[in-house]
Amino acid sequence: MRNSLVTSRLNLGSVVPIHRDCSSVSLLANIVTRASRPCHYKCALPVLGFELWFGLNYNLRVPDEFVNPINASTRICAVYGFPIKHSASPAMQNAGLAALGLNWRYIACEVAPENLRAAIEGAKAMRFVGLNLTVPHKLLAVDFVDEFDESVKRWGAVNTIRIEGRDKHSTWLPIHQFGDVQPDKIRAHGFNTDAEAITRSLREDLGIELGGARVLLLGAGGAGRVAALKLAAENVGELFLVNRTHSKASAVAAEIRRRHLNVKIQVGYPRGEVDLCINATSIGLSPNDPLPLDTRQFSLRQAHAAYDLIYRPAETLFLQTAKAGGSKVANGLGMLLYQGAKALEIWTGQSAPISVMREALTKEVYKQSTIHSPQSTVQSPQSTAGGAHTEG
Ligand code: ATR
């Protein structure tokens, strides 16, 4: 997946919702102290009223450096990439961790490919809770994890690692469950949450029912291939593949014919209408990019819905054109959200706080954009799914 989104910045100091807030304790202590001073008794009640009112508002959001300060019990998750400064994952995941009330932090580490094995071993040695992997590590990491989830076997790439320990009954458990006990062995368990995130985003952000759908997929690179295989696994009715390099689309089509006998697959543009057109090419990442399709062969008016794996800019020419033609549209931020939410669930064993994570992610991704937030430019406000060109 392409790493082209270098404008986002890591921001561990973003504002996050507070649920367990020690600042409210000190605020109340301050109110009580002031109200109990004799010289202030006449003004104590107005002060109390103001401070409680102010305190309630203040208590909704405070900068996260004041919440759950890092201490000796803080557990660490990290994303490894090269480069990594563009990653929006720390903002999203730290908001999620804070909302779950966990004394955990999620950091971003620039790890050169030649150091990936050592960095994974280091995470095991330091008892990190888990890792995410982004460009260029997803394929490389397959050789460096100790155990594969089914999703890694299926998609051939690792984007999430859970560090696990073996207890005295020889059961492997998430490392954070061991507390102060030292497991007799530690392993890195690899998962892939990317492919599932594509279809979850299509369903939740566009309301598409994939079973039996007619789909045109543009692009047969790394992202396009995974999207095509996942759509086939979801039993779409007909899948049309178009790619600049025809042979790559043919190779993906052949792979699908081998693995999914019931899916009708063709290389080339469809006649008539489709339920969904997906852009999985990298065209649209730059502001002056053209449409990623040949409008003499296919008009976006033929598509009931359009999805762009690109999420920045929030609305590519592809989405603008589709929206103007009456299609329902969504960009790729939801894909980024759902792959991260699933990773958080794998580490914590708890449901991810999706709305908190979505808000933090949207704020982080679009904070420097000259383009309006996706809510104002993309039909579905929940539609900002990350794409293949969407590294977290
Ligand atoms: P990713 O892993 O993000 O999918 P990729 O594997 O390099 O990145 O794939 C990029 C996709 O965008 C491919 O489908 C590529 O087409 P080719 O397979 O022909 O290279 C497509 N793409 C990139 N630039 C393009 C361009 N100028 N015109 C048409 N397609 C383009």
Q: Ligands in the structure?
A: 2'-monophosphoadenosine-5'-diphosphate
What's the CATH H-level superfamily name of the largest domain?
NAD(P)-binding Rossmann-like Domain
At the first level of CATH, the class of the largest domain is: Alpha Beta
Considering DSSP H and I runs of 4 or more, what fraction of the residues is helical? 25-40%
| Rg of Cα set | 24 Å
Low-confidence sequence ranges: 1-60, 370-388
Bulk shape: globular
The major β-sheet equals: 7 strands, mixed
**Euclidean distance between termini CA atoms:** 11 Å
What does this structure look like?
The chain is α/β, with parallel strands linked by helices. It folds into three domains: 21-66; 75-195, 3-Layer(aba) Sandwich (Rossmann fold), CATH 3.40.50; 201-336 and 365-377, NAD(P)-binding Rossmann-like Domain (Rossmann fold, 3-Layer(aba) Sandwich). Helix content is 37%, strand content 18%. The protein is built from 13 helices and 15 strands. The protein has helices at residues 22-36, 41-60, 89-99, 116-125, 137-140, 150-155, 194-206, 222-233, 246-259, 317-324, 333-348, 354-366, 374-377; strands spanning 15-17, 61-63, 75-81, 104-110, 130-133, 147-148, 160-166, 172-174, 185-191, 214-218, 238-242, 264-267, 276-279, 305-308, 328-331. The strands form three sheets. Strands 3, 4, 5, 6, 7, 8 and 9 form a seven-stranded mixed sheet that branches. The model is unreliable at 1-60 and 370-388 (pLDDT under 50). Residues 1-2, 219-224, 243-245, 248, 281-283, 388-389 line the site of 2'-monophosphoadenosine-5'-diphosphate.
